[in-house]
Amino acid sequence: MSLKVDYYELLEISKDANGNEIKKAYRKLAMKYHPDRNQGDKEAEEKFKLVNEAYQVLSDEQKRATYDRYGHEGLENNGFSGFGDMNMSDLNSIFESFFGGGFGGGGFGGRRSSQKYALDTQTQIELEFYEAVFGCEKDITYEYFTTCEKCSGSGDENGEKEVCPDCSGRGEAYYRQGFMTFSQTCERCEGSGSIVKNRCKSCDGEGYETKTETTTVKIPAGINHGNRIRVGGKGNVLNARRGDLYVVVLTKDDEHFVRDEQNVYIEVPIFFTKAILGGNIKVSTLRGEKEIKIPPSVEDKKQFILKGEGIDDVHGRGRGDQIVQIKIIYPKKLTDEQKELLEKLGESFGCESTPHESKFDELVDRVKKWFK
What pLDDT does 111 receive? Predict the structure, then answer.
């Protein structure tokens, strides 16, 4: 990562901002800090890089979910390293792919579409550990955009618009710098080429309104954190068409089980006497209890694999394993009687209680000889 900045603060948006709000904030700041508008300004160039970096993360559902939960470290652990190694031509390519053109005389490629939002929309849901493992059904309440009924999407009370006086209907504003001509989207009409005369009170001239809906979503067994579920025909409404709803899944951790894709880990404590003697012990699995055999003198952190006791693959490609890791527990306090018994046990094995002392005496004698 370039700098550990808060992406939401950088784009000046709230953490629950939707895709359209993210795009609008990005467009505003990318135009402000673009190097062609800030010749020789290294600070503006760095800001331009950071703004692009923030947009690349927050506009991607999976990267955004990872960032929201784990921050910059989570992104780095998933292979996203920001724009540290990218040059300005790379960033300009990203900029141009978003705006449909570029600076430096190339223009923006004509008037922008008047469509103010995408057909698809997204929301997120948080699941308990077991809900993600075994699947479930959840009722989700979310917001979506639809054409304003009062103005039929025009944004004008009377359905009338006039040519934008700033760009003369072209949707672009031009300015010269030396021998070069630059273009940018007209800020007044936002590239549509027209402006509203009598702003619709119902939608505040936007041409669309927000509605709330509740739908039931089936969560498949094995869904993982950051996965998306597509719900057809539940997205935004535009020109009598309705897009899809994408549900980003966030999962909670469990107190005992630790998930690693389709495998699941659990740590099982055993008393040191059991570790020495060995024997059968019962362990909890996702689906009940299983018995495993502990060999005598088992080592701490020894792992045992229970085949097929893990999590189902969300695409139906089998099931993972459960890994049981042993944790040897030693007593923190001993009575005098327990101490005596342990000492007798040690003696019964023919072991000295302080073998290190004789070894230390030998070492001291050897060191003394070095200085004779």
Answer: 43
